[in-house]
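In the current project phase, we have settled on a layout for protein records. A sample record is reproduced below.
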Amino acid sequence: MLASFLTSRWVLWTWIPSAPHYAVLVYFPFVMLLGAMPTTGRGPALLLLSLLVLQGLATIYVAVPMLLGVGIIATVRALGPRSRRAGFRLIAVVLVAGLFLLAADAGYLVVRAENPSLATQTPWNTSADAVELPWGPLRADMPMGVPVVTLLLITAGAVSVAWSRAGNRIPGAPWVHGAHWVIVGLGLSLTPTVRWFGTPISLGPFVLSSWLPGLRRFDRMGVVGLMGLSVLAGIAFAECARRLGQSQQEKQRERRIKMLVNWGRHQFSSCWELIVMSD
């Protein structure tokens, strides 16, 4: 997981060196872990609340997708009869964390309200370019632009899981949660107009960027997708290692069976020769 994160060009070269506060992502893996727990007691809930606030203080481009990602998990749980209580508790945690972060960012909102034409007073580009699909979010200068070998590793791990028996593979829950954060990062990175192989497609109100015009660069929200890809790479590596280890065990088992068969043949031949000689 860590290797996939550190080998991202966006992390080491493109963006984080020039904006070091984005490097404060140490709390995010624990947010993912606590969010993935099927039940959330009072202690884990308070811990998750603290981690959400601490991680969200890094930048709003991490806070928004993080809260939305955990909020989606909480909503899904609240819809299930067995997990409804844990779901509502998780929703409460997300709402309280959102209030804390809203208070922390209140100064920015005041400046924005008092300067309606603030976008014209900055040298930075305030209009995001249309996202090129399907490969645009995976470019080297984008948060989800992991090396190709990482994508191949995830694919190999997924294929191994698909071809394995239910009792001999890594459970599906880690895969689901890793994919969840990838989808959240990808979905929040989309602009109101995207290009599918060069053809413009208007998404209108179906993307978050249409509802929050005060944010300039929604592609930065893909950082949660990077964390999801890193988790998937770690799971895929474990699955491939399990598969290779299983293959080695099967080869050793076959070798032992062959040795037993050859030994049996040798003993049978020796006994047969003794019988023939005795006659």
